Amino acid sequence: MRCSVVTSILVVIAISWTAGSVPLCDYRSPQTDLIDLSIGFTYHYRNDPYGLSDYDVNKGQFLAEYSRLYDAPTYGFDISLSNDMTISVLDVTTYTVNADANYKYYFEAEQDLFAFAGASARSSSSFEALGLFANVGVGYGRFTDVTPLAKAIRIETYLIRAGSLSKSLHPVDLQIIAYEIGSVAAYETFADLLTVVQQIIEDSGQVKPGGLDAIDISTISRLLRGEGFTRYCGWDAKIGLGYEILDPSGGARDLLVTGSANYAFTTTPQTQLLIQGAISGPPALLEQNRIEATASYDYLASDFLTIVGSYAFTRETWAGEATDIHRVDVDLVLTPLDRAAVTLGIALEHRPYYLEWSVDVLLSITMEIL
């Protein structure tokens, strides 16, 4: 059965691809399931040498984020949770917790038109109460996990640089390797997958005499595992109606108009672009609304260094009066271990009534749990 499936894929690939590299965003995964869970903690203590308590510092920050994006031919869902807590012994402790979940039903398999239903919750030390919202609507678009092909290309790039391949693999071979990587759950052990990938590479006719050596196989194994490495492409746009089940300000519960758009793109395994935007508010949307927009770009400079740049914009409009928040982050992420990272970050932020941009330099350690 497995051989017939692979044979069918080979026929399709042979028709679709002839020569040249395979564009990452043209890859189609039968199922997308991206999961990310990270935690981070920072602590700052300073005792003023002149005995001025106003200059003493004794505080820490705890960050936790979880996200999951699942997409199948007929349905999909996404979940996101975030927590940002600043704990201070000498000052006020603050926190912000956000939770969102959406379920999508595609009207036809492999098509992009869908209906969705979702809920979100907001809690903050600045709110009077918990905020709880529900919304329904329609949308168009979908995302696909291109990580298997990105891993295949990373393996190919390493082998060419190491001199183990005389030239690039044929696109058909890359697609076969990506298919096997994406089918890792079908293998009894990881070693079985490694053996199959090794065999595909050696049967390509591009391997140096003597075949792959121990260092090559060890590196292929590391790139196959690729803990924390994901790449995805696609877009979607949604419009719907929502209702405030609980108003965080303690006011009246309102009917809401909601809209959002998301876009993900990558051209090489080293890069990932993500753009997100959302707007919500009562039917008098021009008088009262909340707009959120973010853009981020990741660049994998080496196996252990990633450069991440992001911009976030938030606008809240009440009675036609808008207040804006801008934030720019640049992070250097060192990953000495697959599931641990050391981040050196610079953050610039501008809020209403700030006389100038605030500047924060942050050194943190995070761990990937899943």
Which terms summarize this structure?
alpha+beta; disordered N terminus; 18% helix; 14-stranded antiparallel barrel; 5 helices; 370 residues; 14 strands
Describe the 3D structure.
It contains five helices and 14 strands. The chain has 370 residues and is α+β, with helices and mostly antiparallel strands. Strand 10 and strand 11 (305-318) form a beta hairpin. Helix 1 runs antiparallel to helix 3 (171-182) and helix 2 (147-161) packs across helix 3. The protein is globular and about 70 Å long.
Describe the secondary structure blueprint for this structure.
Blueprint: H1 2-16, E1 32-46, E2 57-71, E3 75-88, E4 94-106, E5 113-124, E6 131-145, H2 147-161, H3 171-182, H4 190-202, H5 214-225, E7 232-246, E8 255-265, E9 271-281, E10 289-302, E11 305-318, E12 321-337, E13 340-350, E14 358-368
Antiparallel strand pairs: 1-2, 1-14, 2-3, 3-4, 4-5, 5-6, 6-7, 7-8, 8-9, 9-10, 10-11, 11-12, 12-13, 13-14
Radius of gyration using CA atoms only: 24 Å
Instruction: Please state the oligomeric state of the protein chains shown.
Output: single chain
Secondary-structure element pattern, one letter each: HEEEEEEHHHHEEEEEEEE
Helical residues, percent: 10-25%
| Number of distinct helices | 5
Low-confidence segments, given as residue ranges, are 1-20
Question: What is the strand arrangement across the widest sheet?
Answer: 1-2-3-4-5-6-7-8-9-10-11-12-13-14
The biggest beta sheet is recorded as: 14 strands, antiparallel, barrel
